[in-house]
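Please, is this right?
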Amino acid sequence: MKNLSKDFDHFAKKAKRRKRLLIIGLSALTMLVLGAGTLVVTSYQLQKSGENAQKMTQIYNLIAQPNRVGISNGGGVNGTSGTLDTQFMKDIDGYKIPFGTQNVTYGAWGNDASNLAMPQTSFYNNGKYDVNGNRLGLFFTPGLDVTPSPDVKYGTAGVRATHEASTLTEMPQTLAEVYVTFDKPYTYAQIQALVPSNLAINWYWLGLTNKKVDASMLTNYIGINTATMPKSGATYQLETSAANANADIMEYPEYNWPDFVKCVKLAPQYFTDYSPIVESGGKGTFDVFKDAAKQISSEENLDNAKFSGVILTGKTKNLATLDAESWVFATNVGSTTPERPYITPAK
């Protein structure tokens, strides 16, 4: 009887050990399955978030980078996060000028690409400057009184229209870009006839439908670049080597107008830029991205599309005559660079 009791106790203990090991094994297996599942889900979400960040970045860079073009894309993925990095340059009458880097971060559950529409800028000396001290240039609203008013709760009501192109006579042997605000909107075809042949048109500003909004205070200007781009248009990167100077390179506005229209229509889903309506005493707001989407028709061709301004680049002696033109309402200088004897300007 004692032996039977001992055998039973031994069997019970053995069964308990098996049960304990089984529970431990099942728990470990469950953790492995859950861990693997979490990694799969996280990896999938990270990929989708990265794709969304890339889409948002491309949309923004296509429509809201005045005379700024991404010349290289990079970034990487680290665990549950990733980055998209784009280096920019400006084209000043054929001179390629480095113009900062754009960094977008994303994680498995979101990205900060919407912050692209809220860059840090400062206003002083009748101009707008980025965090690196680069002068960005301004457009204006013809006919708008921007005299500061105590009723405006958003700070200064803006900058009075400037005529800075004429001052460029004091900067010989220099290339510059000038933000030109028209006296009224003109079609793409009309602009080709208006602009002197010794100046390059680098960017077309779409303008605003609400003439009570102070364009000089806008964070974002919506328009289309004219830089030479790869025919695919997929990455919006410049092709700069001589080997790429062939039929695969297209002039940007003509080739990518449909992409521009599509991106302008999509932008309000991802970006907002609210600005005060000046003449209403700061009451009410105006969204630049929604306004641009209203202006663009999917059926409209580029020749008939209307623009309210352009960015022109060229030699300062040629730009200095712009303020005398009847179609020019205001001029504001952006970037400048010295002429170099070993580089021939485009114009």
User: Anything to note?
Assistant: The longest strand covers residues 174-187.
